[in-house]
Design a protein that fits this description.
By secondary structure, the chain is an alpha/beta fold. Helices cover 44% and strands 16% of the residues. Strands 1-2-3-5-7-10 form a 6-stranded mixed sheet, with helices on both faces. Strand 2 (14-19), helix 1 (30-45) and strand 3 (51-55) form a beta-alpha-beta unit. Helix 9 runs antiparallel to helix 10 (219-232). Bound molecules: hexanoyl-coenzyme A. Hexanoyl-coenzyme A is lined by residues 24-25, 27, 63-68, 70, 104, 106-108, 130-131, 134, 136, 138-139. Hexanoyl-coenzyme A (HXC) is lined by residues 24-25, 27, 63-68, 70, 104, 106-108, 130-131, 134, 136, 138-139.
Length: 257
């Protein structure tokens, strides 16, 4: 796969997407959007891939949507094109996705990270929704996902002031799953992704579906949904293998079916 604004690589069972517009701090323009979605879709349909990692550079995961590309557009340009709607494809991926964030994750960058299933942060990571400073507001999910992830008070303050949050605060707030030294970020993200990719893929996909369901339905409905998915794992060969491996005191080898 050859792209201009990203690098997409298969590393074992992990699909790695590296945002690669260094001169613009990985600002998200239309080309980068299409390339990320294209690469992610290719990994999604590749039976050899079990987990997808999205990362940026040491300095920036992504410093937001591309301001220069947007600045002269009119309301009808944005509304007519339903600007940013294409990004809805990313959280709809069924395979697990990890954002590995170092440096700036601002505006659309923070929103892209939040579209992934979880965020691993380097200690250099800085998160923010600074759109208000540009006279606009979040448009790729910031006001919605940030509020669900860190709660109303902090999300409201972040979106109204545009201030940045460092990695330690992001971990305390529940925005990121873990903070690791910057030098170890990619290796840690790849090891984490390989661990996930070594599990039963259908089981991992069901976990993702169930956890995501928690955002959408009440507890009783969510618990019922989870239980039915749990029951269905007993139709998998991987359930037989996983439980047999435990009983026989050996590592499980999943066949993903
Ligand atoms: C286009 C960007 C950009 C962006 C940085 N660059 N962010 N270009 N869109 N979002 C470009 C700069 O113009 C500059 O190019 C180069 O990247 C390096 O950036 P500097 O500002 O020189 O770097 P630095 O001084 O280290 O500051 C880093 C920064 C700052 C704090 C991250 O770049 C910044 O504040 N960026 C904008 C952050 C932001 O507002 N993001 C939200 C965007 S709106 P040149 O050519 O000058 O060297 C959004 C959602 C949109 O994401 C919602 C609806 C509109």
């Amino acid at each position: 796969m050859h792209y201009e604004t990203i690098i997409a690589e298969k590393k074992g069972r992990v699909g790695l997407i590296t945002l690669n517009r260094p001169k613009a701090l990985n600002a998200i323009n239309r080309q980068l959007t299409q390339e990320v979605l294209d690469a992610a879709t290719a990994f999604e349909t590749d039976p050899d891939i079990g987990c997808i990692v999205i990362t940026g550079s040491e300095k920036a995961f992504a410093a937001g949507a591309d301001i220069k590309e947007m600045q002269d557009r009119s309301f009808i340009d944005m509304y007519g094109a339903d600007w940013f709607a294409d990004w809805e494809r990313l959280p709809r991926l069924r395979k697990p996705t990890i954002a590995a964030v170092a440096g700036f994750a601002l505006g659309g960058g923070c929103e892209l990270a939040m579209m992934c299933d979880f965020i691993l942060a380097a200690d250099t990571a800085r998160f923010g929704q600074p759109e208000i400073k540009l006279g606009v507001m979040p448009g790729m999910g910031g006001s919605q996902r940030l509020t669900r992830l860190i709660g109303r008070a902090k999300a409201m303050e972040m979106c109204l002031t545009g201030r940045m949050m460092d990695a330690a605060e992001a971990e305390r707030a529940g925005l990121v799953s873990r903070v690791v030294p910057a030098a170890e970020l990619l290796a840690d993200a790849m090891t984490t992704a390989e661990t996930i990719a070594s599990m039963s893929l259908p089981a991992a996909m069901m976990v993702k579906e169930a956890v995501n369901r928690a955002d959408e339905v009440d507890l009783a409905e969510g618990l019922r949904f989870e239980r039915r998915l749990f029951h269905s794992t007993f139709a998998l060969e991987d359930q037989k293998e996983g439980m047999a491996a435990f009983v026989e005191k050996r590592p499980a080898v999943f066949k993903n079916r």
